[in-house]
Amino acid sequence: MANKTIYGCVDVSTGVITFAGEACDGGDYTGCLEATGDGRIVVAISEASCNDTYYGCINSSTGAFQLIIPDDCCIEYGIDCDLCEPSLWANGKTPGYVKLTVSGITICSGPDVNGTFYLKQTNPSIEPCHFSIPCITISGTSVRYTWSLEHVNANYVTVWVVADNERYFYDDDLSCTTSFTNVGTDCGVPDGRYIGYGGTAVIDSTPQRASDYTDQDLC
Question: Is residue 17 scored above 70 in pLDDT?
Fold first, then answer.
């Protein structure tokens, strides 16, 4: 874990120091000067990975109020997935949310499913190595995105229509890879269910913000 410095301004009428837009939900952190009069700033933060009181100061060079906080306050870790440690994540640091970028899929029918999406541990107490968007609405169609590590020798990504299991993308691998290439090579190929072909999928397994997931057009 590293730190970051945020900067705030004071309302001279109230003494409240506001660190605008720095909260995980896009809101503000607020604090005040410590009552002891030693010039320290006091800010209480309650976030996914930061739930503590932090102390800052006035930057003598710029005159700005500054506060040093952990840089992963907005990150939500999930239930520990032991597979592919430590190549994908450290022990005890399994992400609750990951990022999937799908590109280059040729669409035979339906909406364009290419883009960047945020997946969550769908059922972490039972399947801590399974991440998905169970249902997202794209141009009126319900689509599911999944990345699953069932065991070290079964690692796959799939994109498919929720209603009828028609696939836009599928690939599996016998390693802890995070890069995938669609097995679909033409409309309907290889098994008649493919309504997209070609393209790649790349997983960013560093922990992501929960708000990135909930900001999507979920069903």
Answer: yes
